[in-house]
Give the backbone structure.
Amino acid sequence: MTGSPTFSPLYRQIKALLVQALDEGEWRPGMAIPSEAELAVRFSVSQGTVRKAIDELAADKMLVRRQGKGTFVSTHNDPREYFRFLRLVPNNGEVVPARSVPLECWRAKAGPEPARMLDLPHGAPLIVLRRVLQFNDRNVVGDEIYLPEEHFRGLDMDMLKAHEGSLYSLFEARFGVHMIRAQERVRAVLADREGAQLLGVDEGSPLLSVERVSYTYGDRPMEWRRGLYSTVDHAYLNELN
Amino acid sequence: MTGSPTFSPLYRQIKALLVQALDEGEWRPGMAIPSEAELAVRFSVSQGTVRKAIDELAADKMLVRRQGKGTFVSTHNDPREYFRFLRLVPNNGEVVPARSVPLECWRAKAGPEPARMLDLPHGAPLIVLRRVLQFNDRNVVGDEIYLPEEHFRGLDMDMLKAHEGSLYSLFEARFGVHMIRAQERVRAVLADREGAQLLGVDEGSPLLSVERVSYTYGDRPMEWRRGLYSTVDHAYLNELN
DNA sequence: TAGTGGTCTAGACCACTCC
DNA sequence: GAGTGGTCTAGACCACTAG
């Protein structure tokens, strides 16, 4: 019976303004945003209110606080953040860095599934790419990745081969597309001939199928991918609360 | 060169005291804790400091705030929370409640793996139970669950059959064991004869193997389980930030 | 109307980083 | 020492719940 509960506290409005500024690129990934005191003046609120807005953005991992230094726009373009969304860990605890190796890259029209996942019209232009992830020079993940061409114009094999780091670091550095969050659906499948060969397992071996949609500011989907994970020497790790 | 950074803010000390009180059962799951004002008096700090401690406990899901009513100890013993740790969702979005059906329950000595995962000495007494999870009366998950007998004395098939709800709600209601968080490792495996029959799939079908350790207050491991998930009609859903 | 959590402010001071 | 985020306080007021 009651109307919509339209009440929105000040700090959430400040938060929305900050997200808008981030989305518009007022501050680039890795750069510092103005100090809390400055922002308080800019928005005509107390520092405590700015602080609460930033608290939430830090919890969302859009910003990173560093005591004594400032507050920074989070970035994928830093070795420690390259594979922020990758949940695969080796069975023996040793930490080896992953390496992304591009295989193919072509243009295509969106079929029903990519169109739906990317919120695009059927037939919209896409860039599709295939790559593998390696640990210790061994292929462990094979991905097929679908991107709306509109936002990734110019992406090709040369660019992929020239780039050090993860795809998300490339997306950020070259196309200004910053992924904020993602959602994965994991299933068990059998390796077909191609997948088996790619990951160095027998045909018919069990693999994880991992489908992921990644979102940029404003919950806009910007990437859809399907991966095959070999879980012989690794596991998909998940924390539950 | 610098010594250990032992600085701990007041609100974290308050938080630790609150966790201790929760662990000792001063307030039971589902019940309200004292108001922020009362706690401020009790600990001789300002309400804002208590508030920040509770903020973190709410983020950890140990407490739940309800505006106008109070702050409550979180509980698994509520239909909406029965399967808080279950990440399985149906392929078609419809929400059907899960149902836990016990199969077997027996006593055993801890082998190397349960002992390691539960931080118990080799040979420590365990209770082991097998059960299935059903959606729409169809078996989708088969679990084998290992519990330290010390904390679950008296658990048997009769008790399992008599209980409505999830295992965690039973653990909480009957044994005062409240799971706070858990960690899962997911792999792809092939269904053996037994697993295939249990889940109604062909032998050799791909299944998810999900190993989980659950922790109570103080990060004390209290349960280890291994599950087989059929992902024919469901997917393991995960949010990444 | 009373009690609870939620917001907002202003100010003092602390911890950390860098020059 | 200057500048940043981090803590703590005290007080006023708002939103929500329940009797």
In short: Chain A has two domains: 10-73, 79-236. Chain A touches chain B through 33 residues (CB under 8 Å).
